[in-house]
Amino acid sequence: MASSVVRVDLDGNPINPLTICMIGAGGFIGSHLCEKILNETQHKILALDVYNDKIKHLLEPDSLPWAGRIQFHRINIKHDSRLEGLIKMSDLTINLAAICTPADYNTRPLDTIYSNFIDALPVVKYCSENGKRLIHFSTCEVYGKTIGSFLPKDSPLRQDPAYYVLKEDASPCIFGSIEKQRWSYACAKQLIERLVYAEGAENGLEFTIVRPFNWIGPRMDFIPGVDGPSEGVPRVLACFSNALLRREPLKLVDGGESQRTFVYIKDAIEAVLLMIENPSRANGHIFNVGNPNNEVTVRQLAEMMTAVYANVSGEPALEEPTVDVSSKEFYGEGYDDSDKRIPDMTIINRQLGWNPKTSLWDLLDSTLTYQHKTYAEAIKKVMSQSTTS
């Protein structure tokens, strides 16, 4: 429950309660952020989304300690005249809305571009025109490929952090050719970042841009056929979770050699709350939010998840726990990938004093414990129905 003690910011100033318009509040990040805000602060939330399944526990019943501090508005921001009014009613808008599933980037490039650029334009416009602060969620994908990926494979420079650590204020954004439509997402996200930045420079928009580096935890993404479409392909951790729950081999795209870092959702949400409550330190900045200590190849991630799930479920791992597939087979034509994504943490550490705490093993244990408890029986039911039909 939120404390009645006056909260203070990093500079010791009292924090006044805010009204926050949260677009995409019903998703993975939004649900955890809503929980954090309602439990620890006196801020009010206008929660905007098409679905509210992941925040239903926050909306009912009226006896909840935060009753009256969260309102759900079922809105598709593509075409809803209520959007500007809700932004006007708020002190701060947080935009989490996006299509952000890699399998969609080259199979639904138009939807991806429209969702991540065109649909976000009114949000930026209304915030700028009405003098409202904006926290806009972007992605680590805006960096694209590292400089190091273009060096010869045996070059010692590949080990130099200058060639692969990603810095908000220095690293270039390097994408593949236009025919590689996998970059439709990253390109749309980069362009909306540039628009937000330009509104700040030319029209005084108070903004913060967040670049998440693989935020992981309970309620992440969807499990196909259970809480998502049967034919959908979620992001890597949910793909692996789905296979583990179904006792199927984990599919490693192109050998699983790409490297990623993963950060626990509860650590990441701490960073966002610091941004919300410290505008003097956060405004005008772009923040990497990730955990460079939790770096693994996708193959190593699969191996670790297999071990963690065996521990969580009590079920032995498959004799052949993984299988290699090509990116064309898995994602279709037009797929491309980045080699490494290691966030530089200098700016967020300097401005907000934030550092992630949770190890990769612990965050996987938390996530897979939740997924096994939540989905195991549902998946058994789905599988039994499919074999009898």
UniProtKB/TrEMBL annotation:
<dbReference type="InterPro" id="IPR050177">
    <property type="entry name" value="Lipid_A_modif_metabolic_enz"/>
</dbReference>
<dbReference type="InterPro" id="IPR045869">
    <property type="entry name" value="Arna-like_SDR_e"/>
</dbReference>
<dbReference type="GO" id="GO:0102765">
    <property type="term" value="F:UDP-D-apiose synthase activity"/>
</dbReference>
<keyword id="KW-0520">NAD</keyword>
<dbReference type="InterPro" id="IPR036291">
    <property type="entry name" value="NAD(P)-bd_dom_sf"/>
</dbReference>
<keyword id="KW-0963">Cytoplasm</keyword>
<comment type="similarity">
    <text>Belongs to the NAD(P)-dependent epimerase/dehydratase family.</text>
</comment>
<dbReference type="GO" id="GO:0048040">
    <property type="term" value="F:UDP-glucuronate decarboxylase activity"/>
</dbReference>
<dbReference type="InterPro" id="IPR001509">
    <property type="entry name" value="Epimerase_deHydtase"/>
</dbReference>
<dbReference type="GO" id="GO:0033352">
    <property type="term" value="P:UDP-D-apiose biosynthetic process"/>
</dbReference>
<protein>
    <recommendedName>
        <fullName>UDP-glucuronate decarboxylase</fullName>
        <ecNumber>4.1.1.35</ecNumber>
    </recommendedName>
</protein>
<dbReference type="GO" id="GO:0042802">
    <property type="term" value="F:identical protein binding"/>
</dbReference>
<dbReference type="GO" id="GO:0046982">
    <property type="term" value="F:protein heterodimerization activity"/>
</dbReference>
<dbReference type="GO" id="GO:0005737">
    <property type="term" value="C:cytoplasm"/>
</dbReference>
<dbReference type="Pfam" id="PF01370">
    <property type="entry name" value="Epimerase"/>
</dbReference>
<dbReference type="GO" id="GO:0071555">
    <property type="term" value="P:cell wall organization"/>
</dbReference>
<feature type="domain" description="NAD-dependent epimerase/dehydratase">
    <location>
        <begin position="20"/>
        <end position="290"/>
    </location>
</feature>
<keyword id="KW-0456">Lyase</keyword>
<keyword id="KW-0961">Cell wall biogenesis/degradation</keyword>
